[in-house]
Amino acid sequence: ELDENGNVVMEEIAGVLVEKTTYPQYLIISGNTSGNNPITQVLAFNSLNPGWASTASGTNQWEFSYVPLIRGLNVITITATDSGGNFISTQIEHNWDYPGEISKPN
User: How far is CA 3 from CA 42, 47, 59, 91, in A?
Assistant: First the structure.
């Protein structure tokens, strides 16, 4: 499939892994993105925490090392953009009901 500029549209975000840590109030999410154009950016947003957004380390192979959670059903949207301006998204749902405050470990 081609976009309006003749660039091949990205095919998928694949291999998305969610790793729970010993700190129950955040996740580590990693994965990979494929396409014919170079991936330029991978972003994440959390539906329950609209003030939070993060850029992943890496592009084709990427990781979010700290995704903070809010009590309830967290819908985390990951969006990858390529050099042609094409983008693709996927979502991860994680229900968090741990009683405690959100804090980032040292």
Answer: 19, 28, 21, 23
Q: What is the pLDDT of residue 22?
A: 45
DSSP-assigned beta bridge partners for residue 91: 77
Angle at 18 between CA 12 and CA 23, to 5 degrees: 155
- State residue 19's pLDDT score: 58
Q: How far apart are CA 5 and CA 14, in angstroms?
A: 25
Q: Give the residue from 88, 86, 84, 92 showing the smallest Cα distance to 64.
A: 92
Render pLDDT for 44-82 as a digit per residue (tens, 0 to 9): 999 998 888 898 877 778 888 888 888 899 999 988 888
Q: Which two tokens stand for residue 72?
A: 């309830």
Mean model confidence pLDDT for the chain:
75
Q: How far, in Å, are 17, 21, 52, 68, 73 from residue 98 at the CA level? A: 21, 13, 19, 12, 12
